[in-house]
Amino acid sequence: MKQTRRLAAGGEHVLAAGRTREANSRGDREAHGFHTVEFAVDERPRERLLMSGPACLTDAELVALVLRTGNGRADAVNLAHALLRRFGGVLGVLSGRAESLLAVPGLGDAKVAALLAIRELLERAELVKLRNAPVVSSSDEVRRYLGMHLAGQEREIFGAVLLDTRHRLLGVEDIFLGSIDRAMVYPREVAKCCLRYNAAAVVLFHNHPLGGR
């Protein structure tokens, strides 16, 4: 019996020591400006997404899942809120250039790379939709793809979406790359592009990095 009591006491001592180390570790993090926010399991964005689907999460919570961690002063959700405010919403964040994103405190190479990768995946997904469509019959379909394709561009681009006789996608080309506020367009180069694809129809596109129309 005495041996049993000594083992129990030893176990409690180890547990207490573990709690002390945990408390000390938390205290060290807080002393250096790191704050940890603990959620109940059913309140954590990742668990809620897996249980109920992504539609149940806010924009900030979805962005937080991409960021994974905070910046030492704010947890991932609060950092995501700040990021959305700074860039004017989800589209602004996904359209942000690498340099602009890296300028945000707490966004390092890994976080920015994750955001840029998501944007590229979205663009590729929209392009696959166009390629697989039996016919490109809606300007909204083209607009969705071009919105991702031109997002974050620093220079003006003039390009073409090329279609065959049945309005199926043949390809997309950026024909002219200009400066921040202009792009020189030569009709003969546009004609060459259409002939190269043997296109029967073409949708021309052009962006304005400075926001003009």
Topology (SSEs and partners):
Layout: H1 2-31, H2 45-52, H3 59-67, H4 76-87, H5 90-95, H6 98-102, H7 109-132, H8 139-149, E1 157-163, E2 169-177, H9 187-197, E3 201-206
Antiparallel strand pairs: 1-2, 1-3
Helix pairs in contact: 3-4, 7-8
Report on this structure.
14% of the residues are buried. It contains nine helices and three strands. Helix 3 crosses helix 4 and helix 7 (109-132) runs antiparallel to helix 8. The chain folds into two domains: 35-121; 135-206, Cytidine Deaminase, domain 2 (3-Layer(aba) Sandwich). By secondary structure, the protein is mainly alpha-helical.
Structure summarized in a few sentences:
This protein has 213 residues and is mainly alpha-helical.
Number of strands: 3
Principal-axes geometry comes out as flat
Question: How would you sum up the major sheet?
Answer: 3 strands, antiparallel
Mean pLDDT: 80
Relevant terms:
54% helix; 9 helices; 213 residues; flat; single chain; Cytidine Deaminase, domain 2; disordered N terminus; 3-stranded antiparallel beta sheet; mainly alpha; 2 domains
